[in-house]
Amino acid sequence: MTAKLGPALAQISAWIDTLNHKIGRTAAWLALTMVLVQFTVVVLRYVFGIGSILLQESILYMHGVLFMMAAADTLLQDEHVRVDIFYAQASKTRKALIDMLGCLFLVLPFCVLLVTVSLDYVSISWSVREGSRETSGIQGVYLLKSVILVFAVQMGLQAVSGVIKNATRVFAKPKGASQ
Fold it and tell me: Is 78 left (phi over 0), alpha (psi -120 to 50) or beta?
């Protein structure tokens, strides 16, 4: 049974990584879209004298969605912010141990806390179908708030994947070791 556990966990980790990478790459297109919408807002405002609260709010929505939906892919690519005081000089095994413990004791508890704290916040927003305070704004604030939960789940899954991959590195038997 333990022989099948390793490949099964590796498969789960690979599935999580693929999912988060695809979501992150898709969300990255929002950066280009934000630039184009911002350009449109500027042209409308300064060339034609037309303002659009809807377009301005859409930039805020895209910005929030971009960062929340791409965060797990950033963690996967190891591009997140890290304080490298001890980490930079550490061996590969020690780095894997630090990453594994960071996922277990920092990222996962944060994700659980975020879901716990945000659940009522999001469900109240859904119950009233919360919209913009502006009449011509986006009437989907509840959708934007839902992304908080998606973010927490994505990050939690990526932390699980990180634990699996780093535990494999930490506890792997060196090549040539007797079995």
Answer: left
Dmax (CA) of the chain? 77
What's the whole-model pTM score? 0.89
156 pLDDT above the threshold of 90 = yes
Helix (H, G, I), strand (E, B) or coil at 139: coil
Determine phi and psi for 139, rounding to 5 degrees: -95, 45
Q: Cβ(34)–Cβ(59) under 8 Å?
A: yes
Q: Counting beta carbons within 10 angstroms of the beta carbon of residue 125, is it exposed (0 to 12), middle (13 to 18) or buried (19 or more)?
A: buried
Please state whether 45 falls in left (phi above 0), alpha (psi between -120 and 50) or beta. alpha
Which pair of structure tokens corresponds to residue 136? 């011509």
Task: Give me 40's structure tokens.
Answer: 């449109």
Q: How many CB atoms lie within 10 A of CB 163?
A: 20
DSSP string, 75-120: HHTT-S----TTTTTS-HHHHHHHHHHHIIIIIHHHHHHHHHHHHH
C-alpha dist (Å) from residue 124 to 34, 119, 120, 128 = 28, 9, 6, 7
Contacts 24+ apart (CB under 8 A), 86-93: 92/169, 93/169, 93/170
Lowest mean pLDDT among 38-52, 86-100, 112-126: 86-100
